[in-house]
Please model this.
Amino acid sequence: LIIAVGVRFSDRATGNGAKFAKNSKIIQLDPDSAEINKNVQTHHHIVGDAKRVLELLLEKAAPKQNDEWMKYVFSFKTETEYDEATDHLTPQQVLSSIARICPQDTIVATDVGQHQMWAAQYVRHVKPRHFLTSGGLGTMGYGYGAAIGAKAAKPEAPVIHFTGDGSFHMNLNEACTAVSFGLPGVQ
Model:
C-alpha cells in the first residue's frame, strides 16, 4: 500500500510510470485535482487540504503497536558491501558507507539530481527533520543553503550536504556566508 500525500509521481521518482508499483495499491491525497491520476493511476484518491484530511483520518484510526513487525523490519541488512571483484565503487556504495559512519543525529541536505535519489534510498534516517531536500520540486541549489541553515540552528549536530557540480556552482558564493557566521566545521 502506498499512501501518497502531495506527491506528483514525476518520472524521476517512479521511473517508468507504467511499471511503477505494479503490485501495490495507491491512495493519493492532493489539494490539486489535476495531480490525481496524472502520472500514475491510483486505486483511491482524496482531493483536499493534506493537514485537514490527515487529521480526519487520524480520528478514525485506532493506535497500534506491532513490536514483531518492527523487529522484522529492522532486521533487514542496510549496509552495501564493496564488491572487490569490480575495479570501482558505485555511488550507492559510497553513500551507504558514509551513512554507516555518521552518527544518528547527522543532518543530511541534498540538492537536485540523481544524488538526491541515492541519498533518499541509501542514507538511512532515524530522526525526523534530519533529511533536508526539496523533494520533487527541482530546486537546484537548495541543499547548500539548507545545510548552512541546519548547522546554524544545530551547531552541535554533524551536517552533510550531497550535491552535484552544477548546484554547488550556483551557490558556491554561500561559502562566504558559512565562514562569515563562523559555523563550526566550516573554514
Notes: The radius of gyration is 19 Å.
